[in-house]
Specification:
Blueprint: H1 3-11, E1 16-19, E2 28-33, H2 39-49, E3 54-57, H3 59-64, H4 70-75, H5 82-85, E4 100-106, H6 115-128, H7 134-141, E5 142-152, H8 164-174, E6 180-185, E7 187-188, E8 193-194, H9 197-206, E9 211-213, H10 214-223
Parallel strand pairs: 1-9, 3-5
Antiparallel strand pairs: 1-2, 2-6, 3-6, 4-5, 7-8
Helix pairs in contact: 2-6
Length: 224
């Protein structure tokens, strides 16, 4: 499926399946633009993907909000002794640092975990991108810890890291959408592991969802 159809799908508020690479996580994520995310999207990611539903944001947006990576927050915490700090992940087995920051709930949510609550948190983070004093609004509108983990894309996106965080944010950038995405890894209940490339392609075909291979996206980025 071409990149053009993936961009068109995102612009319509529909899903895209995104494969990173066989040499990395070797996983496929369901991706939707955060600005269009509804409770129905969240329910579908929960039922058809089943991994961890996260919110990926552009690096500069994260900086404006005063967000930091979780490994940096923990490394600089006085609450952890040196032994506990040994637990902080450096590089993941696939060679990258994790992009996790804090986890949040919008203040209007109740428990924060329902499809409705998570969709609200995701939507409001996308809306925040266009707010002038978004740091102040962020602090007054969101609570942590919450049920939506934030992922901060690397500076320079695919130049520095080729993960689902960067790839999904890059897709919204070229689609001229708000660079905030809801992403969730696709799992396989039969093998208890990540859904295979072949099964994900079959799911994409059956459900008319564009399938993007990370290699194609990286090549496109090099040219553009």
């Amino acid at each position: 499926m071409s990149l053009e159809s993936a961009i068109a799908s995102l612009k319509r508020g529909e899903f895209v399946l995104l494969f990173d690479s066989a040499g990395r996580e070797n996983e496929i994520d369901m991706v939707v633009a955060a600005e269009f995310t509804t409770p129905e999207h969240v329910a579908r990611m929960r039922q058809h993907a089943g991994g961890l539903l996260c919110l990926a944001i552009d690096h500069s947006f994260g900086q404006k909000l005063g967000l930091r990576y979780m490994h940096d927050i923990l490394s600089n915490s006085d609450s952890l002794d040196s032994d506990s700090k040994e637990m902080i992940m450096g590089l993941a087995p696939y060679g990258d640092r994790p992009t996790f920051s804090i986890s949040i709930n919008h203040y209007q949510t109740y428990t924060g975990i329902t499809d409705h609550d998570r969709a609200l948190t995701i939507n409001e983070m996308a809306n925040l991108y266009k707010v002038e004093n978004n740091r102040k609004k962020f602090v007054s509108s969101f609570k942590t810890p919450g049920h939506v983990p934030l992922l901060i894309a690397s500076k320079g996106l695919l130049v520095n890291r080729q993960g689902h965080t960067e790839m999904s944010v890059y897709l919204t950038r070229i689609a001229e959408l708000t660079p905030v995405t809801a992403i969730c890894e696709m799992m396989d209940a039969e093998t208890y592991s990540a859904l295979s490339f072949e099964k994900a392609q079959k799911y994409a075909k059956q459900n008319a969802i564009p399938f993007v291979d990370g290699k194609e996206l990286i090549e496109y980025a090099k040219v553009h």
